[in-house]
């Protein structure tokens, strides 16, 4: 395992993603790899997940499904990496492929669009913009709710859209990035506590929890460092993360959320509505102010940019050690 090669590939991927992101003109012409992964998961769901089967059989089939998804992703990444290994500047080509599975620029743009919508069209436009990045009911959200939702999405997706694929890329190379993204996509599609997916999607949800354990905690620590560098109350960010993150319904989402809330002085999370169902989650940084504003979105975006810079610097330092 060449960790120096992997770290260099990840740094190249982060740089390309920061500069280029996900250009719509490309993905309008060809299917995005994550869309292709999603189609495969959807096919397995249709083929294997039958409601007439008993719960234990559906759980077993769910294990089979996520195993197929993960192994296919690993194999695809290995074939691509092997193909590029012997060409000139092959690591740059690998980085370009890996950048497709990162979300720094697209995440920034989607959250910034909510801030812009507030200024251009008021609450109604902001609700429409935030509905593109969160699953909760936008019509039930007031200004504070929309602002919090955008900031929470920014924090959580920093972990699973940036830090997690990069970490698995350093550990396992391009196969690790693609496999992580496949597992994360499977969780988003079938890892729900609904009648159809409670049993079948359980293995996908559990595996996603496991592969995000280290990245979520690392992302929280990075946010604390970013708070220090931007002269935010980093001690409060650290304390909120240590105190409140374990209370989150997810074993992972609370770490970057609580750190971000502490850094911005906001109470994130809390009760919210999904599909007309109230979810009574605890607040992350419960001592903060729940009345977030569009200006807080701007502050969160500046914190996010600094966190991305810290994250890149982390792997640059690792590369210096691995060489």
UniProtKB/TrEMBL annotation:
Pathway: Cofactor biosynthesis; adenosylcobalamin biosynthesis. The keyword Membrane applies. PANTHER family: COBALAMIN BIOSYNTHESIS PROTEIN CBIB. The gene is cobD. The lineage of its organism: Bacteria, Pseudomonadati, Pseudomonadota, Alphaproteobacteria, Hyphomicrobiales. It is found in: Cell membrane. This is Cobalamin biosynthesis protein CobD. The keyword Ribonucleoprotein does not apply. Keywords: Cell membrane, Cobalamin biosynthesis, Ligase, Membrane, Transmembrane, Transmembrane helix.
């Amino acid at each position: 395992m060449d960790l120096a090669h992997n770290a260099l590939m990840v740094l190249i991927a982060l740089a390309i993603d920061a500069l280029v992101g996900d250009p719509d003109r490309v993905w309008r012409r060809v299917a995005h790899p994550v869309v292709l992964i999603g189609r495969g998961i959807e096919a397995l769901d249709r083929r294997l997940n039958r409601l007439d089967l008993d719960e234990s059989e559906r759980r077993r089939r769910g294990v089979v499904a996520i195993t197929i998804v993960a192994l296919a992703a690993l194999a695809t990444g290995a074939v691509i990496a092997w193909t590029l290994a012997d060409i000139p500047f092959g690591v740059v080509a690998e980085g370009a492929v890996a950048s497709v599975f990162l979300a720094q620029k697209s995440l920034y743009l989607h959250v910034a669009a909510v801030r812009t919508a507030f200024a251009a069209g008021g609450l109604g436009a902001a609700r429409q913009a935030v509905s593109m990045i969160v699953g909760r009911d936008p019509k039930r959200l007031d200004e504070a709710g929309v602002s919090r939702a955008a900031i929470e999405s920014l924090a959580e997706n920093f972990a699973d859209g940036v830090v997690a694929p990069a970490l698995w890329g350093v550990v396992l190379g391009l196969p690790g990035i693609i496999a992580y993204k496949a597992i994360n996509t499977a969780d988003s599609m079938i890892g729900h506590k609904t009648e159809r997916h409670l049993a079948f999607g359980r293995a996908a949800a559990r595996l996603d929890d496991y592969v995000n354990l280290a990245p979520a905690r690392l992302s929280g620590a990075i946010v604390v460092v970013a708070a220090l560098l931007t002269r935010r109350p980093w001690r409060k960010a650290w304390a909120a993360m240590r105190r409140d993150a374990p209370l989150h319904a997810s074993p992972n989402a609370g770490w970057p959320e609580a750190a971000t809330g502490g850094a911005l002085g906001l109470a994130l999370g809390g009760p919210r509505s999904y599909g007309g169902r109230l979810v009574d989650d605890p607040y992350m940084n419960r001592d903060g102010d729940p009345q977030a504003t569009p200006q807080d979105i701007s502050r969160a975006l500046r914190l996010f940019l600094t966190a991305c810079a810290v994250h890149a610097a982390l792997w640059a330092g690792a590369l210096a050690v691995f060489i």
